From TrEMBL:
Protein name: NAD-dependent protein deacetylase
Upper lineage: Eukaryota, Metazoa, Chordata, Craniata, Vertebrata
UniProt key word Zinc: yes
Organism superkingdom: Eukaryota
Active site: H182
Binding, Zn(2+): C190, C193, C214, C217
Chain's gene name: LOC101404674
Species per Swiss-Prot/TrEMBL record: Ceratotherium simum simum
Family according to the record: Belongs to the sirtuin family. Class I subfamily.
Catalysed transformations (reactions): N(6)-acetyl-L-lysyl-[protein] + NAD(+) + H2O = 2''-O-acetyl-ADP-D-ribose + nicotinamide + L-lysyl-[protein]
Amino acid sequence: MALYARPVLPALRLLGPGGERAWARQPRITVGRRPISFSAGASGVFGSGGHSKKEKLFLQDVAELIRARACQRVVVMVGAGISTPSGIRDFRSPGSGLYSNLQQYNVPYPEAIFELGFFFHNPRPFFALAKELYPGNYRPNVIHYFLRLLHEKGLLLRLYTQNIDGLERASGIPASKLIEAHGSFASATCTVCRTPSPGEDFWADVLVDRVPRCPVCTGIVKPDIVFFGEPLPQRFLLHVVDFPMADLLLILGTSLEVEPFASLCEAVRSSVPRLLINRDLVGPLAWRPRSRDVVQLGDVVHGVERLVELLGWTEEMQDLIQQETGKLDGQDR
Ligand SMILES: [Zn+2]
């Protein structure tokens, strides 16, 4: 599997739903909140109890599998759709603060800010984006805290994110549980001598609109965000171990358009339920559905809240959010 970001740039998708791909124009199946399962006639085995008949799974069933701890190695894949409820919008959307910010830099097209060629020509638009995403500017939302709770309960095997906003970390999920597939602003590297730079150093420059320079060679210091054509982080290779081990796959708020990320959802065993909570039916779940797929279409926050309710975690979630919001308020003061 290629480990290089393909031309549909990841980082952009992260920031918001972009253009639709060919297969996304297939007739859209929207059934509100009612979970649906496809290919009910496909062969397969339900659980290990020797059921010969194919059974359709619903959101309720997934919740019960988690409650009964029949699923306790949950792998999660997330994308831009979990960041929009935090107020992070596609920076290409006219009217978003970021879009207006980019206008002043003569960026030929928005994707250019994640191209190395353009970056070396003019790094300022990229650092304007970095400044916008400075930790604390945006806060984790209920979806991030649901994932945190999944971790607290010892159920999270790994969280694969395409987002570069760092909100998964901000929600308190430890770095060891995270694969930030398109990189993060948590570290940076000199583009010339490759000297790593601790995050705190470059933020000081970014916050005063100065391009961060390497103390060793004065080369531009670039946060470790994956640009077009750059290799994905080494940690991404953990998918080789994680996906075959998973006993439940959750896919939240991603259009599954970017490879190699998108194909990962096919790497879980065929007996493993895949739950998609998303605005639309997307990617391999649309064109190569499995019998144990559960699809909860519509608003992602509502879908997650419904799952939390079915899990009986609503009160714990409220407590966690209250506690974490209190901490963040404290930091802001
Ligand atoms: Zn250097």
